[in-house]
Amino acid sequence: MSISLWDLHEIGGLPITGRFYDEVIPTTESLNKKDHKGVSYIPHICRYLFLAYHKILRDSKGKSGVRMTTWIKYWYQGPFKYKKPSRKTIRNKSQKPKEDSHPSGIILTALKRTEEEEWVFEDLGITDEDMEKSYLATFLACWLCKFVFPKDDVTLIRPGVFKVASQMAHGVSFGLVVPVLASVYKGLNDISSVDDPGNCTTVLPFHYVYGWLGEYFDTHFTSSSDKSIPIMTRFSGRLSAKFFEDSTARALFRTCGKVKMSRLARVFSEFK
């Protein structure tokens, strides 16, 4: 039994069809290349992401990369809505905690940006018609680096995602489930191959693994909504994970008596 492509699509909400995902820093020539109709192969908003990256890096006083926190502060000049959660943890939880620092999920009507919040668009020379797509591409760049394909240093923004993020902002779909599943399996293999798994520094998108465990093995407390999309959002929240000792965790995976998996999930007849 293991995570399948269909699981990542259904539980994680990732697209299972679409273009091939590839991280690349395009050349100046490719950024300016157009098809026979005069439409750029790479959306021109991609230039704004590279320009912002260059400006931040130029002002970072010799640092080798742009941190995600700096990237967010540059693009977003408004106040932060969610307070930083406390470090309090609860072991041996038998009931769902009253507070888990999880947002309500309610998205209110967008407010008009203030002059301070519009400064970034003026700084980059972004036109009014490109503002929303540029802002969306900025968010997608963070999402790809932090939650979809985290790599060695998850605190950094990788400019290699800007091309894909810009295309996504224009409605282009990429088949993310295959490379994400490959990343998950590689990370789990690295962990299982080291002498001390607890000190393994391998990075992988663990939240998809947690979503899979929560859906099939009841490892997390669920939210009140049963219609959450994607499914894994039902198991979100800082204190939503139940506590298992090593022995009880092994017993959970060995019995699997109540597990009912999709026909498209990957299931073997026995465990080793």
The gist of it:
The protein is mainly alpha-helical and 272 residues long.
Jot down its keywords.
38% helix, 10 helices, disordered C terminus, 272 residues, mainly alpha
Explain this structure.
The chain is mostly helical. The chain is built from ten helices and no strands. The chain has helices at residues 5-10, 28-32, 45-58, 68-75, 119-124, 131-148, 162-169, 177-193, 206-217, 246-255. α3 crosses α6 (131-148), α3 crosses α7 (162-169) and α6 crosses α7 (162-169). The longest helix is centred in the middle third of the chain and has 18 residues, at 131-148. The protein is globular. 21% of the residues are buried.
Give a topology summary.
Layout: H1 5-10, H2 28-32, H3 45-58, H4 68-75, H5 119-124, H6 131-148, H7 162-169, H8 177-193, H9 206-217, H10 246-255
